[in-house]
Amino acid sequence: MRISELAAATGVAVATLKYYLREGLLHAGEARGATQADYDATHVRRVRLIRALTGSVGLSLQQARAILDLVDEPGDDLYETLGSAVSALPPPTAEPDPSEPDPLPHARAAMERLGWRVHPTYAGMAQLDRALAAASDAGLPMTDERLDAYGRAMHDIAGFDLERLPGDDPAASVEYTVLGTALYEPVVLALRRLAHHEIAGRMLHPDAD
Amino acid sequence: MRISELAAATGVAVATLKYYLREGLLHAGEARGATQADYDATHVRRVRLIRALTGSVGLSLQQARAILDLVDEPGDDLYETLGSAVSALPPPTAEPDPSEPDPLPHARAAMERLGWRVHPTYAGMAQLDRALAAASDAGLPMTDERLDAYGRAMHDIAGFDLERLPGDDPAASVEYTVLGTALYEPVVLALRRLAHHEIAGRMLHPDAD
Question: Which of A24, B11, B70, B119 lies most in the core, judged by the most C-beta atoms within 10 Å?
């Protein structure tokens, strides 16, 4: 397809597509004479990925580039690559202070409680630590029982997600992991609020039709 | 305690406490002479609530006031009050267009699939619809199987949360619902990322010690 058709297929303006091409975010089409090029399904998919990262996910083009680089060159260790890709997503977290003997005490205790083996410097640890500290400061600390219940539910979801990882295709695995992490997070939170609403209705309005 | 002690107990500056008092967000202390007042544990708790709403939760004072008003006057229908309080939390969602015959098609289909009975105009519906549409636009639509898995996990969490609702104390119920919704959301998302990390480690690095 021509660039105008790629624009129509993706809803992205031709000028923006040309910008992606110049910046090397989008691979060149196959040359058809001096001024035309031919684009295919790989271009459509790539443009959708760029749009998702810079749109719904809310990354700058520079931040998106870090993830696109990992899609393009996933390297030999898929586990490390997936961790790096997810760590490039919001929210930004400060690096833990290495001089601190126990820099993320809430998160570390939570992982011990759950028996999860994670890298102590994985970005999710700083994210969890901050979240647990905020709950505690507000007078609503996570109890062990709540941590068990939440941990079990999240482990169920994560198991479902990873069963569907296209592990024999590293580039597709990075794409799936990044988009699946970022785009399903708002789904998770909306479903939690709706589940509260649904159960509260049955508890507090048991006779409603 | 004196206002300086309330400041020390909550970590909030005296000038800020006086501002809360003037604005009516914080109830007056008991008068002790012409220029002094005595504060107690109810003031500490209220200041913590205001700080959580305007700090971690990220509300403006005006938005926090809407929630504080519901804590102060929960009204007769706790179910309605809890729904209004949660709807006052971020993210803001546009009202569905009432002239549209099916304004939130993704969310409606999801609730039908899950068999959840919810108000079709509850704010969580617009939130879910937008999240499902974004995932779909990015080429990663929620399948029925994924919706089932996520819905089951969120229903488990919500059941745990609502078993602990202090239902005989409406003000405490509003406070618990608002803070528990907002403050545990970042915990949920961090746990999901860590669960992915943990399972990916076992799948991709099975021999690591």
Answer: B70
Identify whether the C-beta of residue B181 lies closer than 8 Å to the C-beta of residue A193.
Answer: yes
- Residues of A numbered 61-120 whose beta carbons fall under 8 angstroms of chain B's beta carbons: which are they? 77-79, 82-83, 86, 91, 107, 111, 116-119
Q: What is the CATH number of domain B1-54?
A: 1.10.1660.10
Which residue of A lies nearest to B181 if distances are taken between CA atoms?
A193
Percent of chain B with pLDDT over 70: 99
Closest Cα of chain B to A98: distance in Å? 20
Helices B105-114/B123-137 angle, 10° precision:
100
* Span A197-209, average pLDDT: 86
Which pLDDT belongs to residue B209? Answer: 54
Report the C-alpha gap between A27 and A61 in whole angstroms: 16
Element (H, E) at B161: helix B144-163
Give which of B6, B1, B5, B2 is closest to B51, Cα–Cα.
Answer: B6
- State how far residue B79 is from chain A, nearest Cα, in angstroms: 6
Average pLDDT of the segment spanning A152-170:
96
Cβ contact A155:B154 at 8 Å: no
pLDDT on residue B168: 92
Spatial separation of the C-alpha atoms in residues B145 and B66, rounded to whole Å: 38
User: What is the average pLDDT value for chain B, to the nearest integer?
Assistant: 94
Overall average pLDDT of the B183-198 stretch: 98
Q: Is the CA virtual torsion B40, B45, B49, B52 positive or negative?
A: positive
Summarize pLDDT for B146-189 with one digit per residue, the tens: 999 999 999 999 999 999 999 899 999 999 999 999 999 999 99
CB contact under 8 A, A127 and B49: no
Across the A:B interface, residue pairs with CB atoms under 8 Å apart total 271
Question: Which of B190, B182, B188, B186 is CA-nearest to residue B49?
Answer: B182
Using a CB-CB distance cutoff of 8 angstroms, which residues of chain B are in contact with residue A81? none
Contacts of B207 in chain A (CB under 8 A): none
Rounded CA Rg of chain A: 21
Specify the pLDDT at position B179.
Answer: 96
Give the chain B residue whose CA is nearest to the CA of A117.
Answer: B198
User: Taking 60 as the threshold, does the pLDDT of residue B144 lie above it?
Assistant: yes
Chain B residues within 8 A of A67 when measuring between CB atoms: none
pLDDT attached to residue B208 = 65
